[in-house]
Amino acid sequence: MPPITSPVTAQELEILSTKAIEAKGRAYCPYSKFHVGACILTASGEFVVGANVENAAYPVGTCAERVAFGTAIVAGHKEFKALAVATDIRPAASPCGMCRQFIREFTTPSFPVYMYDADGAYKVMTIGELLPDSFGPEDLPK
Predict the structure, then answer these.
(1) Closest Cα to residue 74, out of 50, 57, 108, 104?
(2) Radius of gyration of the chain (CA)
(3) What are the contacts of 127-130 at 24+ separation with CB within 8 A?
(4) What is the pLDDT along the chain (142 residues), one digit of tens a residue?
(5) Which residues of the sequence carry a binding annotation for substrate (predicted)?
(6) Total-model pTM
């Protein structure tokens, strides 16, 4: 598999990781104790964060990635350069299946997802690698 050509600069990646790790600290996860933070870099250069928000009715909770994308979409963003996700485990956790499809709705298969572990080390994969044979809005009949 060829290496991912990052659409982000070293400085943007530093900000992405810092903001995702900071957002993790604001997660509301009294049940699972599984803190997740996310940060999206928009095509216009803005950073949008999210954290997981749990609920006593477990299925009602929302993942950090979906919080960040929802916030970005409501703010008017439609194009994105990269996503960082941070957790407190080793190795780094990838977005769940529901989040993978949610991310794919707003991105292309080449969209990079940087996954940070408890030590700040990361692994990067494209959404196409995380969700092979996916489909997006461009694949549906017009």
Answers:
(1) 50
(2) 14
(3) 127/100, 127/103, 129/1, 130/94, 130/95, 130/100
(4) 344 556 899 999 999 999 999 999 999 999 999 999 999 999 999 999 999 999 999 999 999 999 999 999 999 999 999 999 999 999 999 999 999 999 999 999 999 999 999 999 999 999 999 999 988 888 888 8
(5) 52-58
(6) 0.93
**Which residue among the candidates 14, 65, 79, 105 is catalytic per the annotation?**
65
Residue in the block written with tokens 């009294």: 30
Please state the residue numbers annotated as binding site for Zn(2+). 63, 96, 99
Q: Which residues are annotated as a binding site for substrate?
A: 52-58
Domains recognised in the chain with CATH numbers: 10-127 (3.40.140.10)
